[in-house]
Amino acid sequence: VLEPRMDRDFGSSYVHLRANLLSLDEELCRVDVDQFLFVIDKGNKSEIDGDTKQALSFYEEAMRIYGGDFLPEELYRPWADLKREDLQSKYIDSLLRMVELYEKQRGTTRKAIELCRRIIRIDPLQEPAYQRLMVLYFNRGMRNTAIKIYDDCRKALEKELESKPDDLTTSIYRRILA
């Protein structure tokens, strides 16, 4: 597929076999997972350095690279499951970082709300996203919507884990009601 006219004696320029280890040529091939992790790391470093604009730029680039679950066709391979979960966790963590940066550093609550909703679509058990969303809606004067978000969280946790929202989520809800 990579080299349809490959000279069989010369071998592939893209794929190398050395010491029984198969690898891609790093100069000729781009691996999205490596790029994703590299860009997130740059976003984290920019955030630590206090460069919010640059951090958001890197996080946005990482979100474009992510594109979905790792090897979705390998649903029953434990090694792929672990990598898939790790990458999804990094993706969600980066979305949460973006929510905080948009909300606090730039005052862009509309974008923060959109990102929280994206997190919940990916993983309906992400209580931190519900918590942020409740506060964001409440601060915009949308009390009923904030209450509905709590109810959505409660239902998701009950359905999937037979559990209730944690103390912080419940405390936010009670404050909204007060």
Keywords:
178 residues, two-stranded antiparallel sheet, 4% strand, elongated
Summarize the entry for a quick read.
The chain has 178 residues and is mainly alpha-helical. Helix content is 66%, strand content 4%. Strand 1 and strand 2 form a beta hairpin.
Structure overview:
This protein is mainly alpha-helical. Helices cover 66% and strands 4% of the residues. It contains seven helices and two strands; from the N terminus they run E-E-H-H-H-H-H-H-H. It has a two-stranded antiparallel sheet with strand order 1-2. A hairpin with a 2-residue loop joins strand 1 (15-18) and strand 2. The protein is elongated.
Task: Please describe the topology of this protein.
Layout: E1 15-18, E2 21-24, H1 32-48, H2 52-66, H3 78-105, H4 109-122, H5 127-139, H6 143-161, H7 167-177
Antiparallel strand pairs: 1-2
Helix pairs in contact: 1-2, 2-3, 3-4, 4-5, 5-6, 5-7, 6-7
Separation of the first and last Cα atoms: 63 Å
Largest β-sheet summary: 2 strands, antiparallel
Residues in β-strands, percent:
under 5%
Number of helices: 7
Question: Which strand order does the major sheet show?
Answer: 1-2
